[in-house]
Amino acid sequence: MAEHLSISEHMIPKHVLEAIAAHHRACQDPMAAFFYDLPALAAHGRAMKAALPTGVELYYAIKANSEAAIIDTLAPVVDGLELSSGGEIARACASASPRPWVLSGPGKLDSDMREAMLRGVEALHVESLGEVARLQAIAASLDHLQPVLLRINPALPADLSSRLRMAGTATPFGIDEVQLADAVQAVDDAPNLILVGFHVHAMSHQTCEQRHQRLLASYLERWPCWRALARHPERVTQLNVGGGIGVNYLRPSTQFDWPGLCRALGERLAAMHEPPRVRFEIGRFLSAFCGYYVIEVLDTKVSHGEGFLVCRGGTHQFRLPAAQGHDHPVIHLPRDPERASAGECRPWTVVGQLCTPKDVLSRRQELQGVAVGDLLVLPLAGAYGYNISHADFLCHPRPEQIFVRGSHENREHETRGQRHVEPAS
């Protein structure tokens, strides 16, 4: 049996529980919905920003969750936004609080790069020599001088590996370090491009602060050599170190030591002769903690000795556990707490409505007295959850996304298919 952390409804803030209960009462069919705690999201963003050393920036990678309410909540807190498509450009530029933004990622369309320049992109992160040539042609056609960062795929020590490697091996991301001199020369030779820095995003799902500290140290050790390749090294001032900070889904109370990483980074930068302006672009670790996926139990059954809770929704709405390969934590909200407390405690596998055995959200969770009509809450659902899911599979209705903006005496209203919960006036 897999190891699971004992968690309870006490992990859920009162105003979120109130919003869940109010929505459940209003549902005609069994419930499947996402709830996002916007005050908690803003507070978490402010805490992350406050921990940064002087001169280090925090950008939000909106691919983690690009809903308008999420962007509007974080935009006033962070220094800027990291985008990777034309669709994300449109969402970011529609924000109520416009922020500086960059465009990164492989396979950029010419139309996206042109649109980015016309909309005032701060910098583009270049992934290949071919992209340098395309970007120069677009910038020249607009008579525009465009700042760029070169994304590097550096060699890495073996002990700095992670479950999802973006560099240090054969990947579609960035320019191999052995080709960096050629790439720098290509940018220097491009009359409409100006090299302002380098971008390295090597590892994702890092849950160990010490390992990530060593990873950043390896970048900073190479920084003087990378910078010296440029024709005008005095212009090369930025080092974007990406994101990659992981979330511990198995032990939600034990998370990455962000303040510890920031303290170590500050000490290292203070010891450098000409330190770069370091920028993080964080997605998952910013938005994950504010989200809750809430599903209603439709059926309970035992098959070949294993108990199953068949619930409204599933991996077509919340693909994260299947994509990550983990058993997601589950919080049981019974309709009748007294009945549940007197019921049997046994392991249950939580599944959805899809016609595939892969539709599993969590395996062998120890839950007591679960019955049809009870709610199950999957926390840590604010990043890479609904937005990466195959929502049209089986043509089930899409789940509502409810943005909780305050507590006590809440009222609800609909906006573009999303429900917002705000304090009553």
Automatic annotation (TrEMBL):
Residues 289-382 form the Orn/DAP/Arg decarboxylase 2 C-terminal domain. GO terms for biological process: lysine biosynthetic process via diaminopimelate. The modification N6-(pyridoxal phosphate)lysine is found at K63. Keywords: Pyridoxal phosphate. The active site is at C355. Residues 43-288 form the Orn/DAP/Arg decarboxylase 2 N-terminal domain. This is Diaminopimelate decarboxylase. SUPFAM superfamilies: Alanine racemase C-terminal domain-like, PLP-binding barrel. Its cofactor is pyridoxal 5'-phosphate. Belongs to the Orn/Lys/Arg decarboxylase class-II family. InterPro entries: Ala_racemase/Decarboxylase_C, De-COase2_C, De-COase2_N, Orn/DAP/Arg_de-COase, PLP-binding_barrel. Residues 406-425 are annotated as: Disordered. It holds the Pfam family Orn_DAP_Arg_deC. One of its GO terms (molecular function) is diaminopimelate decarboxylase activity.
